[in-house]
Amino acid sequence: MKERYVQTAGHGGVHYVEAGSGAPLVLLHSNGASALQYRFTMEEFAKTWRVIAMDMPGHGDSDPLKRHTTIEMYAESVVQLLDCLKIERAAVAGDSVGGSICIALARDHASRTQPVVISECPLRAEKDWLTTWPRIELSYSEPTQSMDEVKLRLREATPEILTRWNIDRRKAGAWAMIDVMRAMREFDAVGSLKKLKGPATAIIGAKGNALNNRAAYEDALGKNNVAVLEGCGHFPMLDDPALFVKEVNRLLGGAAK
Predict the structure, then answer these.
(1) Where are the domains of the chain?
(2) What does the pLDDT look like over 45-56, one tens digit per residue?
(3) Where does residue 4 rank: exposed (0-12), middle (13-18), buried (19+ CB within 10 A)?
(4) Angle, helices 97-108/174-186, rounded to nearest 10 degrees
(5) Is the peptide bond preceding residue 115 cis, with omega within 30 degrees of 0?
(6) For 124-128, what is the mean pLDDT?
(7) Element (H or E) spanning 146, and its range?
(8) What CATH fold (topology level) applies to the domain 2-255?
(9) In whole angstroms, what is the distance from residue 255 CA to residue 201 CA?
(10) How far is CA 114 from CA 53, 83, 102, 196, 204, in A?
């Protein structure tokens, strides 16, 4: 796995890691994480793809945010990374906010990013955001979390995972993480799903945040394009890396036909 750093046209420096060769696949992490969220999947993905895991702006070793950043702006940063790498088109898979970005990519940049895999992206109405917002602010206003807190979110939280989890959250910082949640709250994910211009599929953890949205995803994308991963929660690439790789590859292969 090699580390790289490029200067994008409008989103500053972007750090990423890559492995393998062949058709490009870009991986987008969840809020408060980094490209290393996919460290347990990179080797397997690299057997099939030129896999590129990106630190989204404000996270990891990419440049920090200087202003509020919308989901559409994050999508632009993905396209600008492709420009820097001279990649005309790439498949993209993203988890949580990364899934929101995938929706925006399939809606606004389908000629550059198709197909996409939307992983564990909750489709909240404004009333749901209002209800959950105090918990969201509490969760992200303190970057460092305890093992007990992380165990609530993962099938198996090891000391190594906890260390990486907290390093990434501290790198992002409270303001950037809460701003990501603001961006997700502002983004009309449900409406955007109805306006997709490129092929899209979805992954839902059987114990994840998006399980209640299964019917909405199946209605928008078709039942065959939605996979429910048993035993997985909001972070399937950590809960069951092998199953996550298998299902991403299956969905991408089906969507490409």
Answers:
(1) 2-255
(2) 999 999 999 999
(3) middle
(4) 50
(5) yes
(6) 94
(7) none
(8) Rossmann fold (3.40.50)
(9) 7
(10) 16, 15, 9, 11, 19
